[in-house]
Structures are given as structure tokens and as C-alpha cells.
Amino acid sequence: MEMLIAGGWTGGSGSIPVLNPYDGSEVDTVPRASNADIDRAIAFAVDGATKVKALSGYERYHMLMKAAALMEERLEDLARTITLEEGKIIAEARLEVDRARETIIGSAEEAKRLGSEVVPLDGAPGTGNRFGFTLRVPCGVVLAVTPFNFPLNLVCHKIGPAFAAGNSAILKPATDTPLVALKFARLLLDAGLPPEAIQVVTGSGSEVGRQLCSDPRIRKISFTGSRDVGEAICGMAGLKKVTMELGSNSPVIVLPDADLDKAANAIVATGFANAGQVCISAQRILAHETVYGDLLDSLGPRVQGLQTGNPLDDDVRVGPMVRENDAIRVQEWIRDAAATGGRLLAGGERDGAIVEPAIVADVSPDMRISCDELFGPAVGLTPFESVDAAIASANDTNYGLSAAIFTESLDNAMRFAKEVDSGNIHINWGTQWRADLMPYGGLKESGFGKEGPRYAVEEMTETKMVVMHLP
Ligand code: NDP
Question: Which helix (H) or strand (E) segment is 99 a member of?
Fold first, then answer.
């Protein structure tokens, strides 16, 4: 496919193959954007920002609702594209398209709610006869940089609110998964959005990232991806607004009074979806020593029952990782853990990009499978003696995106919610749960700023203060 610049589909200065992670076949190619392409896109977006801003909220609402309707019509094609370029099993890909449609509908609704506020200036001394109010205005040009693992919904979480708020947007999708993003851009044009509203620049982030991120004409960057790239982008961004949605190594605490069946089901559901390549995948399972053995026993057959294979096959539960290199890395981390005191109870074998879903017991905090973001189909279990120790372990990380606890005790649940430093807290379900309308984002090195259409619109607007000096 070609990229979308200044309203036209265009090639670049070379092409990049998009590979099917399951069998390595070439799905398509995308262009490699040149410096001139990027400059043209930014110039067009700057001019276009005025045009998008001039649309009424109702017009923006209407266009996004039309886009949502087209997403329903094109669901199967979008879902297959996700599976072919990312390796996500087809059932999860269909779910992603459904969620992405909801994200666009939620964004459409926000286009009608861009309100302002009267500021009671007479509350300050000596303000006299003055009347003050705020105006919320779009940032101007928004740059969206997105990861491979939800190649449609995370694009929608940025482009939907950016347009709802009246911005023009440039999207830089992940190089592994640009096709569904390009199809979505075409769909937006078909829905009647002006070409200024969306441009898509393809090319490797390490090649095109600096020019895009450091350009002062871009007023807002919304990034989802790894911690290190996020830090690099913050370094390049200069004086512009930035939202960072980064990684994690999410903990799940299981207390003695937990419903163990439910905990085991949730750990499997939230640890292995998308082959573990989810920013809020359950990774560090901390179980009280009195239930540790029972939890291991109930996890074993559940994890071994996860069928691996071709992600287009409806029976398959765990498909390939996005790249074979990632599968090799995950296998190495599992092997390292097993060689340094961990017990490999299931999985860990690799066939190409597919890693057999794994359980590693007796994991210690210094193992990479615990202290780094694993981003693969494995969970590590560690026993603990007291609630104090479990909360300390949950917090013993530079990340803070999602954390979960299983307990019937309201006191322990509330203590967990207050004391664990995490942007998302789940009580009696695993770490991987998200309604697309909720405020979503991390603490600590998991990032800053929130997504979810209402919150992303706030991040993509600025406030002007207006004071009327009355006679
Ligand atoms: P990366 O950080 O590798 O890439 C994310 C995006 O950044 C890609 O589009 C990539 O382009 C681009 N990029 C890479 N280098 C640069 C650069 N120097 N300047 C500008 N852009 C650059 O992440 P992955 O795609 O591998 O995604 C996985 C990561 O995303 C995990 O850490 C995961 O936790 C996180 N994530 C966080 C979420 C959240 O909501 N908090 C949700 C989903 C994922 P290219 O592909 O061309 O390299």
C-alpha cells in the first residue's frame, strides 16, 4: 500500500516489506518516507489545522459516526489485515475492530462536548467588574506514534480524539503493522473527513522519528510504545505537549481468601492474550504461600490447553509473536529464569515466532522475566508470606500501568488500591482489562497523560483564559 500525504496516496524513497509473522510470507509493502515527504506532510497539516478547526463539533461528530459505520461494514477485512500483519488470533482481531469502532463512537460524542468554564474572578481581591471564562482550543497539529500490538484500536485512540478536538493529525504507525492503519485512513476519507485531518507517514521510527518529533510545527505528540523509545521521543520533542503510554510488568496478587478458580482463569485470560504482547499482560504472579501450590496446580492444565498455531484458525488460542527475534528473546528469558532457580512447569519451547505458553515458578525479583517487561506468552510465579510483602513486591518496579488483586477482603482490596502505584487497579480480575471510555494510562515509567476519548481530548486541547474588563 502507499502512504497518505497531502490527500494523495504516494510512494516514498524505497519500500519496506510487511511480513506475516506466522509463515514469514510477504503480505504487502509500504513506502519508506523521505525527509521531503515528511516536510510536505507537516506543511500540509499546519495549513490543514485551520480547516479542521473551522468544522463545527456537530460536523466532526457526524463524520466520525460515518467512519464508525464503515468500520462495521469493513470489519472482516480490517480483522484479517490485523491477523496477517501482526499474528493476533482472528477472534481477538475481530474484537479489536469492534473496540476500535467504539473508540471512534466515543470520540465522536466528545466532539459535541468541548465546553468551557466561567471563572469566578470576583473571588480574587480587587478584580472589580470583570468577567472571565475559558476557551478550549485544539493544539493544532498532532503527531500520533503507535505500536504494533493493537494496530487499529490504538490508532483510533489517537486519531479519533485528535479530530474530535479539531486538530489535524499525522500518524506514524509501527513498521510491522502499517496496513490496517492505512486502511483505516482510507476509511476516514471515505467517511468524508477532510484530507487535512489525517495523513499517514510510513518508515522506520529510528529513521523518520527525529524529524517528526523535533519539528516545532507539531504541537502535540501522542505516543504509545516502549519505555526507551518514549524516553527518546521526550528528548526530541522540545517545547510541545506530550502523552506517553508505555510498558509494564504487571503484578497480580493472590491472597489466601481468593477464589482460586477465578484467579487461575483470569491469569490465563490476561497473561496470554495476543501471545502476551499487551502492555497490561499479567506477568508477575505473587501468590500467598498457603495457596501457591494450589494455584500452580490449577494453572498448569489451563496453560497447557492453550492451542498454538495459525492465527487464522478459529481453534488457535495463541498465535505467533510479531517477530521471530522477539520469540527468541522470550525463550532466552524463560531459559535464564529456569537456569537461575526458577522452575519451568509448562511451555517455553519455540517454533519460529511461536513460543509455547509458559509457566515459571519460584521466580525471584532480579530475573529478567520479573524485573523487565516480558511482552510474551509466559507468567512467573513467586510466593509471599504477608500482605505487606506482596504490596512491596508489586511496587518493586519502575513501571506502574496495571495491577490486580484477588481477595474477598474489602480491607485488603482497598489497601491495595491505595498503596500500589499503578494507573489501573483491578480487584478480582487480572491486569488486562480495559473499557475504551475509561481514563487509561500509567504512573512512574509507564508514562503520563491519559487516553480514553474524553481524557485524550483534554490532552489534545489547550485552554485560553478570556477576561472581559467591563465598565
Ligand atoms: P516501540 O517503542 O518499539 O515502537 C512504537 C512506535 O514508535 C513504532 O511506531 C516505532 O516505529 C516508533 N519508533 C521507534 N523508534 C522511534 C524513534 N526513535 N522516534 C520516533 N518513533 C520511534 O514499541 P512496539 O511497537 O514494540 O510496542 C510494544 C511496546 O508498546 C511495549 O513496551 C508495550 O508495553 C507498549 N504499549 C503500551 C501501551 C499503553 O497503553 N501503555 C499499549 C500498547 C503497547 P517502528 O515500528 O518503525 O520502529
Answer: helix 90-111
